[in-house]
Design a protein that fits this description.
Blueprint: H1 6-18, H2 24-42, E1 48-53, H3 57-71, E2 75-80, H4 89-100, E3 104-107, E4 120-124, H5 136-146, E5 152-155, E6 177-181, H6 193-197, E7 199-203, E8 217-219, H7 222-226, E9 243-247, H8 254-266, E10 271-277, H9 281-287, E11 292-296, H10 306-316, E12 322-325, H11 333-345, E13 350-352, H12 355-361, E14 374-376, H13 380-387, H14 391-396, H15 398-409, E15 412-415, E16 421-423, E17 429-431, H16 444-457, H17 462-484, H18 491-504, E18 514-516
């Protein structure tokens, strides 16, 4: 499902009204009615509803909701936070309509003691246009709503949440349900906005579908990912499903190489070869039964280095179909030079992770010398080194940082974390919706490297490999959590759950949002 930024929402509204001739009053009516329907469906017990309406169109939506709830026999109090004399346009029309129906409209005038206890609160204070910090009486109202201990339904997005970044603008409503319109907003598709939105419903309000076609942001779901899955036919062999070459491991970090291999195998790759420093090979042969190993020339420090380059390039000229490089590979000077030579000379699509990302961060310009497509899979700390900014700056603008780096260096980037983000050189963003806190443990990234590498080896294009890899990896973690709980989950649990996850994707009926028309 596509996702809208603040700017996209404004343009969709403008074109709907100006180009297609659908009046704003119709859009507001549809929005308010949809929100009222969701409230009635989810809170059938509610007899008394309190609606807090702001001074703009979001407040106008609140007036429409009030009318429809009154028509259903509910006792509705509509609290106006702003001066009613400032209403204009469609919001003014609906304010007058509610008033003409003798709706109980209460002007708070900085006095929250006028509030009467309700079963459900509707937050219609601020919409997607909010960009300033909330202060004064508006801040007190939001804090008051959060303190009431009754369910809250937010209109379009929780008031106070920045619709682009997901961060509270000083404070924000903690909603149980958010009814958003046309498309999910970016700010409630990523953290921390996800935590404020609660359960999300997306209501169509008769904006033309065609206006969504060129939007470059998407929220991943089983429906969108299932299209990537390719059938496995009877008359095939291991060569049909590709051969991944993994360059990984150093003393004390053989587990990272083994986990990457396991992830690749569980993704369905036909063959996997793990290239490791020669001295590490006996250990790898014990750790990997189904994967092959390749003992490579090593440095005096028992790492891969320039001495390894010739042999690696020879191997890559064989029937390998993709390359994964980085897990546990070490960060020595010689390993850095080895990595740069592989990036320069590889004709195979590659995924770069872990130690290799640390080395790339010392000279990101090396990425511009690559001949083949590259996927990077950093966690926020690695992204901060790649981008030359603090980890907090990365977390404050995950979308922007990802887009800028992908465009500058012509790479596909998976910024890991809760709601991992995939960005492309063309400016697209895909937000993952699978995964859980149990996956915050060592080795998960190594498994993901293997999974994406495995899909690259199976000849998926880089974007498909990222999308399917990230979604399936998170879903595998969700399946483990359902069975065993989140605490104590380890990376091999997730890898071994991957075939089940891939099988389940086409059958899933769980979606991150509920779309209503």
């Amino acid at each position: 499902m596509k996702i809208a930024t603040r700017e996209i929402v404004r343009e969709i509204d403008r074109l709907t009204i100006q180009k297609y001739g659908i009046p704003g009053l119709v859009l507001m009516e549809n929005a308010g009615r949809a929100a009222a329907d969701v409230l009635l469906d989810n809170f059938a017990y509610a007899q008394k509803v309190a609606i807090f309406s702001g001074g703009g169109n979001n407040g106008g939506d609140g007036f429409v909701i009030a009318r429809h709830l009154i028509s259903e026999g509910l006792d509705v109090d509509t609290y106006i936070v702003s001066d009613p004399k400032k209403y204009k346009g469609d919001a003014l029309t609906n304010y007058k309509a509610l008033k003409n129906l003798d709706g109980n409209i209460i002007e708070l005038k900085d006095n929250l003691r006028k509030y009467k206890q309700a079963d459900v609160i509707v937050d219609a204070l601020f919409g997607t246009g909010l960009e300033r910090e909330i202060a004064g009486f508006h801040k007190k109202v939001i804090e008051f709503i959060n303190s009431q201990g009754v369910p809250t339904l937010a209109v379009d997005l929780p008031s106070g949440i920045d619709s682009n970044t997901g961060y509270p603008l000083g404070t924000a409503v903690l909603a149980d349900i958010t009814v958003t319109f046309v498309l999910p907003k970016l700010g409630i598709s990523i953290y921390p906005g996800v935590e404020y939105a609660g359960e999300i419903y997306v209501a169509g309000i008769t904006t033309p579908y065609s206006l969504e076609d060129q939007i470059p942001y998407e929220l991943l779901s089983s429906e969108s990912v299932a299209d990537i899955l390719a059938p496995r036919y009877e008359d095939t062999n291991k060569g049909t499903y590709g051969h991944l070459f993994i360059l990984a491991g150093s003393a004390g970090k053989s587990g990272a190489a083994a986990l990457a291999a396991l992830g690749a195998q569980r993704s369905g790759a036909g063959l996997v070869t793990v290239g490791v420093p020669r001295s590490l090979n006996p250990i790898m042969e014990q750790k990997t039964t189904e994967a092959m190993t390749e003992p490579l020339p090593e440095t005096d420090m028992e790492t891969l280095g320039t001495v390894s380059v010739k042999r690696v390039l020879e191997i890559m000229k064989g029937k390998k179909t993709a390359l994964a490089i980085g897990p546990g590979i070490s960060t020595t000077d010689e390993t850095r030079e080895f990595l740069y030579e592989i990036i320069r000379n590889s004709n195979l699509p590659m995924v770069i992770d872990a130690d290799a990302l640390t080395l790339v961060a010392e000279n990101p310009e090396i990425l511009k010398e690559a001949k083949a497509p590259i996927v990077l899979t950093p966690h926020p700390g690695e992204m901060s080194r790649l981008a030359g900014i603090s980890t907090q700056e990365v977390q404050d603008d995950r979308i922007g940082v990802s887009l800028d780096f992908s465009a500058k260096y012509n790479v596909y980037l998976v910024l890991k974390g809760a709601r991992s983000i995939i960005s492309t050189p063309e400016g697209e963003i895909f937000i993952n919706t699978t995964g859980n806190a149990g996956m915050a443990s060592g080795g998960m990234g190594d498994v993901l490297t293997g999974i994406i590498g495995g899909f690259l080896a199976q000849r998926l294009d880089p974007l498909e490999a990222c999308v399917l890899g990230v979604f399936a990896h998170g879903l595998a973690g969700d399946l483990v959590a359902r069975k065993n709980g989140e605490a104590g989950m380890i990376a091999s649990d997730v890898a071994n759950s991957l075939p089940h996850a891939i099988k389940e994707i086409p059958q899933m009926d769980e979606h991150p949002v509920t779309r209503i028309r």
